[in-house]
Predict the 3D structure of the following.
Amino acid sequence: MPTPPNLPLLTGYPETTLAPVRELLASGQLGARIAARYPDRHPYTTHKLLHGYVTELKQRHMKTAKPVSKVLYDDRLLVVEHALGLHTFRSRAHGAKLRALSEIRVAGLFKDVAPEFLRMIVVHELAHLREREHNKAFYRLCTSMEPEYHQFEFDLRLLLTAREVEGTVGNEAPRAEPR
Ligand SMILES: [Zn+2]
């Protein structure tokens, strides 16, 4: 019996959900399917624009959470921290006190994605300002900021899986990218 393709980004999803995904992958259609569903691109492609976007969402939904000292795209960040972004909490000596600084680093691949996926990752990182773990309270925060959070996260996982397995992004020609 052939081994089904390993889908590390989709661990934990039930087989009933994964079966159609495997079929689309087998026929090389998964990337195109996601690309068709999310045709737009967001305009926040620089650190500065990203910073503005994060600040606006934080003001609207997480006003009382601790301040974010730094927001940036990090090209060295590949698909880590559960295929998502990376939030870091650093303690720095600040006079006699230790002051916790929060940074939001978003993987460089998010520069060129649909607005839904940028929103999802930023919501995810903002929720981490309150909850460090991926627990129920964490996901409640995510869905309070973006009601379709779970759908977008699942579809992002599909997109990244398609890039891994099919080696293409939607309908584009395959790109040779340095690893
Ligand atoms: Zn996380």
Notes: The radius of gyration is 18 Å. The longest strand covers residues 97-107. The CA atoms of residues 35 and 58 lie 28 Å apart.
